[in-house]
Amino acid sequence: MASDPNLSAKTIPPRDRLIVALDVPGLDEGKRWVERLGDSVQFYKLGLQFLMTGRYFDMIDWLDAQGKKVFADVKFFDVPETVRLAVEQLQQRKVAFTTVHGNDSMLEAAVSAKGHLKILAVTVLTSLDRGDLDDLGFQCSPEDLVLSRARRALKLGCDGVISSGLEAARLRAELGSRFLVVSPGIRPVENRAADDQKRTVDVEDAFLRGADYIVVGRPIRQAADPRAKAEEIQAKISGLFGAWPRAGDSGEDAWRPSVAVGGLERDGVDPLLPA
Fold first, then answer.
1. For 100, left (φ over 0), alpha (ψ -120 to 50), or beta?
2. Relative orientation angle of helices 226-241 and 27-37, to the nearest 10 degrees
């Protein structure tokens, strides 16, 4: 097992650290993909494309019945009360994570209604680079914007952030280790065909920089043998994190914020991480 200082120490089963983006146009196709991937994948992301199928909650319920975990990546962005009410509804479902892509008031509203849900703040989409930020009127680098948004989100009580692996190391250096970093835009070295993802890293690099989870979609779905590709990624994750369970581990992802992390005022003490 690697000993890199940014490698996550949270008690997350290694095979849960791979989240596969189930970006498909219908319920039946989604089920076929899950059955095809079998036990090579334990955690699935359902995004906006699946939301538009009209069978979003049917898929959540079906995944739960299969023993799978669900990340509802809907990127809430609306007036704060609407966000609060939407999150209140979602937290009644068997969903582990959801995303908010908004300002402080929206994030605060989501946190107030989250229940068991983990709220992840979207920092900067991995399809955006410095030129895109310039076009949007931001006079800073993607890394600086990610850090600024992450700092504010964590102060508001979010459980973590969505961030490219490129920025994960700086997040860990400045904000600590006791929040979740979920990194999309994963492109294996041998599978970096041009697409709309601009700020990408490979599997090992994402984790060594500080990611807790990675989100992988097209590199698996477009592989000649998707299940073998998923297992290849799982083998890389296992090589980093070792066997599960580890001695002394008491549960998966059972962490709470610490008193002071990277200058952030937090409540509670995390029993699973070093003081």
1. beta
2. 60
Residue 184 lies in a domain: yes
Q: Which residue has the tokens 């992802």?
A: 253
Full residue range of the structural domain in which residue 24 is found = 14-265
How many CB atoms are located within 10 Å of the residue 142 CB? 23
| Active-site amino acid positions | 75
Q: Is residue 4 one of the residues assigned to a domain?
A: no
Residue 181, CA distances (Å) to 25, 38, 136, 221 in order: 28, 25, 25, 23
Say if CB 176 and CB 262 are below 8 A apart: yes
| Amino acid occupying residue 181 | V
pLDDT over threshold 50, residue 127: yes
- Extract the runs of DSSP E, i.e. beta strands, from the chain: 18-21, 43-46, 69-76, 97-100, 118-122, 160-162, 180-183, 213-216, 260-261, 264-265
Q: How far is CA 243 from the centre of its chain?
A: 22
| Residue owning tokens 């990408």 | 200
240, 243, 246, 250: CA torsion to nearest 10:
100
Looking at the structure of the chain, the number of domains it has is 1
Assigned domain for 143 exists? yes
Q: Do the domain assignments include residue 6?
A: no
- The 10s digit of each residue's pLDDT in 43-93 is 999 999 999 999 999 999 999 999 999 999 999 999 999 999 999 999 999
Q: pLDDT digits over 151-190, tens only?
A: 999 999 999 999 988 899 999 999 999 999 999 988 654 4
CA 17 to CA 71: how far, in whole Å?
12
- Full-model pTM: 0.84
With 90 as the cut, is the pLDDT of residue 255 above it?
no
CATH code for position 189: 3.20.20.70
